[in-house]
Design goal:
Elements (H helix, E strand, L loop, with lengths): L2 H19 L3 H23 L2 H17 L11 H19 L11 E2 L2 E2 L10 H17 L2 H12 L4 H8 L3 H21 L15
Antiparallel strand pairs: 1-2
Helix pairs in contact: 1-2, 2-3, 2-4, 2-6, 3-4, 4-7, 5-8, 6-8, 7-8
Length: 205
């Protein structure tokens, strides 16, 4: 997304929301199309299970539609509001169910490519092992640290937006990121890797 696209997004979404308020259902479909992929990515990275991630998407948009008149664009963008809804659903899911350790796999959601291991011909085994080790390390973090790592490195959100999503000061986000990076470096060192190359979390295809 270009800087121009980012600046136009609030205007476009405000227009779509006004159309929803006026009873035009196609407008919500457009919002779904704009955000379904990133909500799926958040659900998948938090829950590591394809069906659960699909449930996150469906539940997030159903809840958003039911609460659409309570959305306040002065407090957050529509996308940020969706992240808040999706993250709350993921937290509830994790409280209800203790997830097993799942193998890495690829999945597609309505034609949208999802995280997958796709190393080049050289060093394939090493890269596969590193990515698995990195994600195992991310999953072992506390929920607060795991959330900021996923939101910042995997979903490419700035600290200022993460602060809105998590309802805490921006400085707290930087502190959590710092602590998370330190813990990941230690966890990976125990597995024989020199440091946590967090760029591997972001765009792991």
């Amino acid at each position: 997304m270009t800087q121009n696209d980012r600046s136009e997004t609030p205007v476009i979404e405000e227009t779509l929301l006004q159309q929803i308020y006026q009873g035009e259902p196609d407008a919500f479909d457009q919002l779904y199309t704009r955000h379904a992929q990133t909500i799926y990515r958040l659900g998948w990275s938090m829950l590591r299970e394809a069906q659960a991630a699909e449930d996150v998407v469906q539940e997030t948009f159903m809840r958003a539609y039911r609460a659409r008149k309570r959305f306040d664009p002065a407090k957050a963008s529509f996308g940020t509001w969706l992240y808040q809804i999706a993250l709350n659903y993921c937290r509830s899911y994790l409280r209800r169910k203790q997830l097993p350790t799942l193998p890495w796999f690829s999945h597609s959601y309505e034609g949208v490519a999802q995280p997958t291991l796709a190393p080049g011909p050289e060093g394939r085994l090493l890269r596969d092992e590193y990515q698995r080790a990195l994600w195992e390390a991310v999953e072992s973090l506390s929920s607060r640290l795991k959330e900021v790592i996923i939101l910042h490195y995997y979903l490419d959100l700035p600290a200022v937006e993460i602060a809105v999503i998590l309802n805490c000061p921006e400085g707290t986000i930087y502190s959590r990121l710092h602590n998370a990076r330190k813990q990941l470096a230690k966890l990976l060192a125990h597995k024989g890797f020199a440091s946590a190359e967090l760029s591997e979390v972001h765009h792991v295809s």
